């Protein structure tokens, strides 16, 4: 589990591809490697990855992660190049303040940055989601103004959502711009998106209830429908 509060910016120093995926080496990472162990989880641009090797001191500290083909298909990590910066966050511990929102670092899809507009010291960013498919349905039901979204691993507040255009917006204050890679991305760039998992749980619970899984909720819905029909004179009380 993660919070979406980026701890550090690392730098891609090596990429090794093979048929099963690829290995990324992330350098300049010493600040987050003090308590690192093989097998630990680190979110890289919002994707939860397993540390398969590390050195806390060599070349400013580095660690290696393995990217399976599923990860390459779901995220933008396959497009990273040597010297690219990436957002890093260690899995949260039980004793830390919880300042962001519940982030699994399981990327749902990617989106495209389509507009970038200064607003005083802040900057407004507008993103567009891909066309939904049977394999990957629309994520728009989980996006609401003032709700949460994770973009490249960063917990951000939604400022606008347009279902017809498949777009959503966020604002970055100056402090956030300095701490993450998102402010440096240009229009047309791809980003990793994870929607708030609470919305997914609510949707599944309601679907189960309406399908007969929860009699109290089903009874409540039936009562509301009955009251509406009585009010409209379509049935007698």
Please sum up the structure shown.
By secondary structure, the chain is an alpha+beta fold. The chain is about 20% helix and about 35% strand.
General shape: elongated
Termini separation: 51 Å
Number of strands: 12
Mean pLDDT: 90
Instruction: Please state the structural category.
Output: alpha+beta
- H/I helix tally: 4
Q: How many domain modules?
A: 3
* SSE series: EEEEEHEEEEEEHEHH
Could you characterize what this model shows?
The protein starts with 7 loop residues before the first strand and ends in a 6-residue tail after the last helix. The protein has four helices and twelve strands, in the order βββββαββββββαβαα. The chain folds into three domains: 8-90, Elongation Factor Tu (Ef-tu), domain 3; 109-197, Elongation Factor Tu (Ef-tu), domain 3; 199-231, no CATH class. By secondary structure, it is α+β, with helices and mostly antiparallel strands. The longest helix is centred in the last third of the chain and has 17 residues, at 197-213. α3 crosses α4.
Layout of helices and strands:
Elements: E1 8-18, E2 21-27, E3 41-44, E4 47-55, E5 62-68, H1 69-74, E6 85-90, E7 109-119, E8 122-128, E9 148-151, E10 154-162, E11 167-172, H2 174-179, E12 190-195, H3 197-213, H4 215-231
Helix pairs in contact: 3-4
